[in-house]
Amino acid sequence: MTRVLISVREAFTIASALLTLTAAARGQGTMLNAPGVVTVVSASSFDSTVARLERAAVANGLTVAAKVDHAAAARKAGLTLRPTTLIIAGNPAAGTPLMLADPTIAVELPLRFLVWQGEDGKAHVSYEPIKSIAARHKLTGHDQLLTKMTGAIELIVNAATKP
Predict the structure, then answer these.
(1) Whether residue 64 is found in the same domain as residue 138
(2) Does 4 share its domain with 42?
(3) Comparison of pLDDT for 31 and 16, the residue scoring more
(4) Is the peptide bond before 110 cis (omega within 30 degrees of 0)?
(5) Among positive and negative, which fits the CA dihedral 12, 117, 20, 113?
(6) Are residues 6 and 73 in the same domain?
(7) Residues 34, 16: contact at Cβ < 8 Å?
(8) What are phi and psi for residue 3, nearest 5 degrees?
(9) What percent of the chain has pLDDT over 90?
């Protein structure tokens, strides 16, 4: 009998790869990557996905607080990175009640949407669901707000990624 020992990181990498392969084999556009991170493959180009995501965020009541071009920062450091842009957007009317309940959730707000280009040239949008963030902070009593925020996030990502 042969025993194979693997680390937790290796186990996670294998599990993540299997989830991705399973989703791809089923033709699903949504994948789970890192724990709690949802990734949706976009039907549009990288630049179009970024623009569509920003427009959808604003249309759904969010303010774009920042846009971080990781690929440009990599170039300045003499490195190469496929197009990768982080869009940080939020709505104080939604985020403030959560911060009042637990000020440490402000580390994760406003929301973050990562638009990145895969090796296959396709654009992807990754984000962590707000209910996962709230659960990590053990927030209770905000189910209605979290459900509303979840709906808005899903609308934004769908508007950015669907044909």
Answers:
(1) yes
(2) no
(3) 31
(4) yes
(5) positive
(6) no
(7) yes
(8) -105, 135
(9) 78
Q: Which of helix, strand or coil describes residue 102?
A: coil
Count of other CB atoms within 10 angstroms of residue 83 = 18
Contact 127, 153 (CB under 8 A): yes
- The structural domain count of the chain equals 2
How high does pLDDT run on average in the chain? 86
Q: Are residues 12 and 41 in the same domain?
A: no
Is residue 137 located within the same domain as residue 77?
yes
In terms of domains, do 61 and 136 share one?
A: yes
Cα distance between residue 83 and residue 85, in whole Å: 7
Residues 49 and 112 in one domain: yes
Measured from the Cβ of residue 57, the count of other Cβ atoms closer than 10 Å reads 27
For residue 21, the enclosing domain spans 1-28
pLDDT tier at 36, thresholds 50, 70, 90: confident
Q: Are 80 and 109 in contact (CB under 8 A)?
A: no
b/e per residue 102-139 (b: at least 16 CB within 10 A): eeebeebbbbbbbbbbeeeebbbbbbbbbbebbeebeb
Q: What percent of the chain has pLDDT over 70?
A: 80
3-class secondary structure, 37: coil
Write the CATH number for 126: 3.30.310.70
Whether residues 63 and 137 share a domain: the answer is yes
